[in-house]
């Protein structure tokens, strides 16, 4: 079948990075399909893409939804990290099956979880991947399977980034740790150690970067990988200060994250267990090196920190919209 070079399938369009990718692709002229198990709940939104009934766990659903597509955005994750270890790899296999059937390129929003301390503090795309967590090991296996799929006719673009935040972010440290969605900001909870840098990625900038890369797809390797720098909070205090400026409270209290309580509750709450596993990323500076990206694009798309934080707080219902 002839492949339509401007049709994309997005898995995870109801989530943070998947939704931003879908909207940015529409703006760039792509016809976008979004797979969802209950599309009727999503069709009230007017984002310009078509919702299709299907389950990312079923390869047949993904293959059918990807018919004629040249791009598959794999941005789907189990909500609240429930059954993460059991669901993530079968879902990526569905995308692989669809991509190999179509000769399509898979876009994977990647993370720093793949890496262990031997790759820190400045991490290049080709740094050794020796993860120290279960999620990290699963991420490494995801990428291994995706690279093997390239040998069977698929293509790949991995864009790794730091901790996500944005106006439509869901399971993120910003939305679940620093502030409380739907409530005015009365304090900021900082998970990091004082003086330790941390890397943040504003979702609209990540999506913009991915689309700019795709616009030069003819120059990309079949298995292309780039690192996105985003916002480097050099001392771990800049993000909290930006939140204080956004809410207009220079005396906004900054509290330490309750790691000991999180560890005690982890056996009973899956989300807490998954968050506790990532503590090591808050205890030492870890920075993705974006020099390859800048050399390829000429620049990295970048929204100012204060504007990005303000938009995020408005989107989360923590600030009134303009």
TrEMBL record:
Highest taxon, organism lineage: Bacteria
GO function terms (MF aspect): aldehyde dehydrogenase (NAD+) activity
Gene Ontology cellular component annotations, sorted alphabetically: cytoplasm
Pfam family, any one: NAD_binding_10
Annotated coiled-coil segments of the chain: none
Classification via InterPro entries: NAD(P)-bd_dom, NAD(P)-bd_dom_sf, NAD(P)-dependent_oxidoreduct
Ranges for domain NAD(P)-binding: 12-122
Protein name, per record: NAD-dependent epimerase/dehydratase family protein
Species this protein is from: Azospirillum cavernae
Lineage: Bacteria, Pseudomonadati, Pseudomonadota, Alphaproteobacteria, Rhodospirillales
């Amino acid at each position: 079948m002839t492949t339509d070079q401007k049709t994309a399938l997005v898995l995870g369009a109801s989530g943070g990075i998947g939704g931003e990718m879908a909207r940015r692709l529409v703006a760039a002229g792509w016809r976008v399909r979004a797979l969802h198990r209950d599309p009727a709940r999503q069709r009230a939104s007017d984002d310009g893409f078509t919702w299709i009934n299907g389950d990312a766990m079923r390869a047949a659903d993904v293959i059918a939804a990807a018919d004629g597509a040249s791009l598959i955005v794999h941005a789907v994750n189990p909500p609240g990290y429930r059954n993460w270890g059991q669901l993530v790899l079968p879902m990526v296999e569905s995308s692989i099956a669809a991509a190999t059937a179509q000769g399509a390129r898979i876009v994977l929003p990647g993370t720093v979880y793949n890496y262990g301390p031997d790759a820190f503090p400045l991490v290049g795309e080709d740094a050794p991947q020796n993860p120290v967590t279960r999620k990290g090991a699963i991420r490494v296996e995801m990428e291994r399977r995706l690279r093997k799929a390239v040998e069977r006719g698929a293509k790949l673009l991995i864009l790794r980034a730091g901790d996500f935040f944005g106006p439509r972010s869901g399971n993120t440290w910003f939305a679940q740790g620093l502030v409380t969605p739907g409530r005015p900001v009365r304090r900021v909870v900082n998970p990091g150690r004082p003086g330790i840098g941390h890397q943040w990625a504003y979702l609209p900038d990540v999506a913009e970067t991915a689309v700019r890369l795709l616009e030069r797809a003819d120059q990309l390797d079949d298995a292309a990988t780039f690192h996105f720098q985003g916002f480097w909070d050099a001392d771990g205090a800049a993000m909290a200060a930006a939140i204080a400026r956004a809410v207009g409270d220079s005396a906004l209290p900054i509290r330490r994250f309750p790691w000991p309580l999180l560890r005690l509750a982890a056996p009973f709450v899956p989300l807490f267990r998954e968050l506790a596993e990532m503590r090591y990323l808050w205890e030492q500076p870890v920075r993705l090196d974006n020099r390859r990206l800048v050399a390829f694009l000429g620049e990295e798309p970048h929204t100012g920190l204060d504007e990005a934080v303000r938009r995020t707080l408005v989107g989360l219902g923590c600030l009134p919209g303009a």
